[in-house]
Amino acid sequence: MHYTRDMLVRLQTLRAQKGQEKGLLELLSQETEDREDRGTANAPEHTPHIPEDEQSPHIPEDHNLTQLEEEMRSAEEIRLLSMQDNLLRKMEQAVKYFDADLKLLRHEKLELDVHIKMADLQHITLFEELLLLKEFEKRENSLQERLNSRMEEDDLVRSKLEECELQLEMKRRDIAKLQEQEKAITATFLASLGESNKFADFLTKVFKKKIKRVKKKEKTGDEEEQEDSDEESEEESDWDEDEDGEGSECSYPLDDSVCPPNCDPDLFEVTLQLRERRLDLEELLADERKSLEALRKEHDSLAKKEKIVLNNLEAAEGDLELLNREKQRKLNALDVVVPLRLHQIEYVSNGAVPGKLDQVLVLNRAPLAGLQERIRQLQVEKNHQKERYRQARQQHIQLIHDCKDLEASIQQLEVRCEQLMMMKFGKLVDLEALQTLSGNRNLEEMRHGARVREAAFNQEIKRWEDKVTEAKMAMMEVTKQHTERLSRMGSLLAEKKELEDKLNYRQRSIVSTKSCRLCLRCGGTSSLCR
């Protein structure tokens, strides 16, 4: 039920006139007459509707009423009073509800105002941060681009350095293999000489002679390289110092083109062939060493370049870090509004909150509780460390006493030892030197045995290396033959396929010709034709 302002005013007037002499019926009748006198100019407001069956019948105004009329009048007054009480109670309840809703709305309005103000303040803070970030954006982008370029350059240099290290390792392995082959050739030469060969010095000088050789020349076009020239350009007169012929027992002139008398021609030819192989290996070794030296220089230059690139990269990262720190410092310098309640402020001076809160630290309750808990933990750890220090101090005092006791025991034992040496040797002797002298003989015997075993192992290794070299050569020859046979088999298979295709084509041609002839003879009526 809704009530207008006029109804509420009339209710207040009726409440004020309750104690006067006029009765309730007269007040209601007067109110009704006043409402009727207002006319129909104004639009009627919503008033409580009284059903027709509840409307009181016309009670005559005559003061000479009968007993029945008096009872009817009393019943009507009671009914109207009950209606009035109900209406007043409903109106009071509606007013209470209205006041409560109004208070709730006022409270919600205050909360919304607070949220709106906080949103405005946050918006202002975010806008200031946006302006600050835009201010640093260009510098940050340029530094980031420079950092990315330095990182790409560093990756490129690292990849080149790794590739160069891989090539160096491969070159070292190739050189090691060539050196092993050279050792194998020398071992083969020594094995071919045998024992007590009177031409051993001469053949050794022929084998180790250094000569200048004509290098391979390349033909124009797509032709292959020419073979090494067999002619020697010029003989060198310098020899290895340890192989010079002043103290040599060989009296024959050094002419590697002529086999000396009484010398095995096959052995002389083998020596020349081994020398050619040795010279080939030395040329390959020289080339590989030159390549290795070039790779080392390239590796050193790349390593220096990598250091420079790393320094540039660290400088770029440092510049970017300085920019981020400056940006964070300016972001921290922005004013941020933090709403606090009075009980949340624990910074007091002389029992009161100071007027300025410039030096106040604002933090959440959880970190504060964590710090307080950490204080308690540190207190416990401090007590524990004090207890450990006290125990360590007691232990230190005990160890000092033990050390003094041990020193006294050592002095007694030294005196006892000197007495025993005087009784046994008649003088003081250095026991360490005595133990060393007694142990040297066993050590020398062990070293001699180790050298003998090492020599035997080296000979065994050389023998097996020779076998491996021969097996590799044989495997290469077998592989070459197998490759030739595979290529021959492929060509034969291709010819076979071509011949089969031709044979199939001729057979189809013959069958089709016979079919046509048969159809012409039978007129297409036979089952074969169909």
TrEMBL record:
<keyword id="KW-0853">WD repeat</keyword>
<keyword id="KW-0175">Coiled coil</keyword>
<protein>
    <submittedName>
        <fullName>Uncharacterized protein</fullName>
    </submittedName>
</protein>
<feature type="region of interest" description="Disordered">
    <location>
        <begin position="217"/>
        <end position="257"/>
    </location>
</feature>
<feature type="compositionally biased region" description="Basic and acidic residues">
    <location>
        <begin position="46"/>
        <end position="60"/>
    </location>
</feature>
<keyword id="KW-0963">Cytoplasm</keyword>
<keyword id="KW-0966">Cell projection</keyword>
<dbReference type="GO" id="GO:0005856">
    <property type="term" value="C:cytoskeleton"/>
</dbReference>
<feature type="region of interest" description="Disordered">
    <location>
        <begin position="28"/>
        <end position="60"/>
    </location>
</feature>
<feature type="coiled-coil region">
    <location>
        <begin position="133"/>
        <end position="188"/>
    </location>
</feature>
<feature type="coiled-coil region">
    <location>
        <begin position="278"/>
        <end position="333"/>
    </location>
</feature>
<dbReference type="GO" id="GO:0005929">
    <property type="term" value="C:cilium"/>
</dbReference>
<keyword id="KW-0206">Cytoskeleton</keyword>
<feature type="coiled-coil region">
    <location>
        <begin position="368"/>
        <end position="423"/>
    </location>
</feature>
<keyword id="KW-0677">Repeat</keyword>
<feature type="compositionally biased region" description="Acidic residues">
    <location>
        <begin position="221"/>
        <end position="247"/>
    </location>
</feature>
